[in-house]
Write a structure and sequence with these properties.
The complex is a heterodimer of chains A (553) and B (80). Chain A is of the alpha/beta class. Chain A is built from 18 helices and 17 strands. The two termini of chain A are 27 Å apart. The mean pLDDT of chain B is 86. Classes of the chains: A alpha/beta (553), B mainly alpha (80). Chain B: One of its GO terms (biological process) is ceramide biosynthetic process.
């Protein structure tokens, strides 16, 4: 049989359509005989079918020097203000003990909150902004002012309308208030009400949950799934059920707090490997198997690798094929947290597993959340039926936490049906395609303008590096003046020199909205001097692509 | 036109200085303190330069001249 994945013109052709047929008809699961294409090995020698383009450009050296200078000046003034507060020259706005308790063991450690008091408070007006509409592609903001430099706020009563939303995790645009779209949700709301008032194991399992779990399993192509009321709790309450003392957890450097919390609660030994670094991971696996547990040298009971699909602070995508081949070689388990990638990457929105063209059987535990791409709340864990049945009895979340409320479950059901095409329209696929187009357009324009952007070219999370602490506040405030809402992130969540602004592209953004944002960024980039990239590409790539001309003859 | 664009450029430079040294975040009295300190330091540096640099340059000049001048005198004395 001719090899359909032929190499011609130096480009490897990857047939997306055939992959989708395989996934939809489930042929690969039934009796091992596939009617689709057969590959006689990979032509380019790596497990990746398409090139991975990830950028982590380093800024010029003077930027790091100036960042430290800025932090130094901030620290000096922080010490000055703390001195003035301690000696009563200035009013104290932080929590303090009562006079009668001054001789007790101190309740508040003064120096611990140094950074919060002296740097975060000065730019605090850029976070926790209350909005008063649905967080779709645009939202309404309640205006607030401060009289004492961000220690207290008061609302003026005015509402800023139609601020372009570049911060919400609304990847597919399902956070909407359109009456037609929410028809089934309204019906379920009137049928069930809002409260469940019980846990899954007592009286909180509704037929809606069963329907939703079947749908999630079908969507992902696995045997069974279980849904939980809260995405953070899905990670932190289920990892302790899966691993315990005597097990080894290999967790990525930049994993989310929920994964770290779950790992610590479980009591297993945790070892950290460098971000997306497969050589480091392999070395840790080999050391674990050769040396075993620390003192007794016994074999580990279980080795589990914790990774995320898309890392939300970097925008990088996990190297799934390499991890799966490592896990098969060293017989470890894989836990994949697809919080940001489910619905957002992949040809039909089924996450990183589909993005790399792999089978969901390769991943042992598939976890994800419904908060980001489905416009609801909650999380799921999917995999083999044995795993999910085990979690139904042993997970802390199933035993003690209230289950998902029915209107939210219905919202997820309708969003998933739309994505799979079961509602009779192609709207789901259109949304996924629109997200892909918006992502590529946004990233390409930002690269051309000369900003430093981190992450994979296909990830809808776009971190734009700001570096200096003074620019964090200036950037967010000026963007709000131009009616664009952005999320900026600084020191504790990112390394100290790499503060950034994080944009989340959505399928609901129109080209005009993205152009407005890009023009504002262009102006602001010139004014704040943010265009540090030394590799900005021109907007006419044809002038550079000479190799293509040589091969096509 | 030139004056206007010059003024805009200077304003932009001042904004950059504010952002880099975090004085954008400071309250007005802190800014006053910071700028006073900086300007005092700069004035002291310039004053020191004004007083000492000419003396140092002329001493260095004399030193080098002395080196070259000495050789010339030696050759002249040998010839004599």
């Amino acid at each position: 049989m001719a090899n359909p994945s032929a190499v011609c013109n130096g480009h490897l052709h990857h047939h997306h359509q055939k992959q989708n047929n395989l996934l939809k008809s489930g042929l690969y699961k039934k009796n091992g005989i596939t009617k689709g294409m057969k590959k006689n090995g990979i032509s380019n020698g790596t497990p990746y079918k398409k090139k991975i383009v990830e950028h982590f450009e380093q800024a010029p050296m003077y930027v790091a020097v100036l960042t430290f200078l800025g932090f130094g000046v901030g620290t000096i003034f922080g010490y000055l203000r703390d001195f003035m507060r301690a000696w009563g020259l200035e009013k104290r706005n932080v929590a303090a003990e009562r006079e009668q308790q001054k001789d007790f063991v101190p309740l508040y450690q003064d120096f611990e909150n140094f950074y919060t008091r002296n740097l975060y408070m000065r730019i605090r007006d850029n976070w926790n902004r209350p909005i008063c509409s649905v967080p779709g592609p645009q939202f309404d903001l309640m205006e607030r002012v401060t009289d004492d430099y961000n220690w207290t706020f008061r609302f003026t009563g005015r509402i800023i309308k139609n601020v372009i939303n570049m911060g919400s995790y609304n990847y597919l645009g399902f956070a909407e208030t359109d009456v037609n779209a929410l028809k089934t949700v309204t019906i379920e709301l009137q049928k069930y009400g809002t409260g469940v008032c019980s846990t899954r194991q007592e009286m909180g399992t509704l037929d809606k949950h069963v329907e939703l779990e079947k749908l999630v399993a079908k969507f992902l192509g696995v045997e069974d799934a279980m849904v939980f009321g809260m995405g953070f709790a899905t990670n932190s309450m289920n990892i302790p059920a899966l691993v315990g003392k005597g097990c080894l957890i290999l967790s990525d450097e930049l994993n989310h707090t929920s994964l770290v919390l779950g790992a610590r609660l479980s009591g297993a030994t945790i070892r950290i490997f460098k971000h997306n670094n497969m050589q480091n991971l392999e070395k840790l696996l080999r050391d674990a198997i050769i040396y075993g547990q620390p003192r007794s040298r016994r074999a580990w009971r279980k080795i589990i690798i914790l990774v995320e699909g898309i890392y939300s602070m970097e925008g990088s995508i996990v190297r799934l094929p390499e991890i799966v081949s490592l896990k098969k070689k060293y017989k470890a388990y894989l836990y994949l947290d697809e919080a940001h990638s489910i619905g957002a990457v992949g040809a039909t929105g089924r996450g990183v597993v589909e993005y790399f063209g792999m089978s969901p059987d390769d991943v042992d535990v598939l976890m994800g959340t419904f908060t980001k791409s489905f416009g609801a709340a909650g999380g799921y864990i999917a995999g083999k039926k044995d795993l999910v049945d085990f979690l139904r009895t042993h997970s802390h979340s199933a035993v003690y936490a209230t289950s998902m409320c029915p209107p939210v479950a219905e919202q997820i059901i309708r969003a998933m049906k739309c994505l799979m095409g079961l509602d009779g329209t192609t709207q789901g696929l259109q949304r996924v395609r629109q997200l892909g187009k918006n992502t590529r357009y946004f990233r390409r324009r930002l690269h051309e303008m000369g900003f430093i952007i981190y992450g994979n070219d296909d990830s809808p999370v776009v971190p734009l590096l700001l570096y200096m602490p003074g620019k964090i506040g200036a950037f967010a405030r000026r963007m709000l003046e131009k009616n664009i809402g952005v999320v900026v992130v600084g020191f504790p969540a990112t390394p100290i020199t790499e503060s950034r602004a994080r944009f989340c592209v959505s399928a609901a953004h129109t080209r005009e909205m993205l152009d407005t944002v890009l023009n504002a960024l262009d102006e602001l980039g010139d004014f704040l001097h943010l265009k540090y990239s030394r590799y900005s590409k021109s907007s006419h790539p044809e002038l550079y692509e000479e190799t293509r001309l040589e091969l096509e003859d | 036109m030139d004056i206007k664009s010059m003024k805009n450029y200077l304003y932009w430079l001042y904004c950059q200085f504010e952002l880099i040294t975090c004085s954008y975040l400071m309250e007005p009295w802190e800014k006053l303190l910071f700028y006073t300190f900086n300007i005092t330091m700069l004035v002291m540096v310039f004053y020191t330069a004004y007083i000492f640099v000419p003396v140092h340059i002329s001493t260095a000049f004399q030193f080098f001249l002395h080196l070259l001048g000495n050789q010339h005198e030696n050759t002249v004395s040998v010839l004599k």
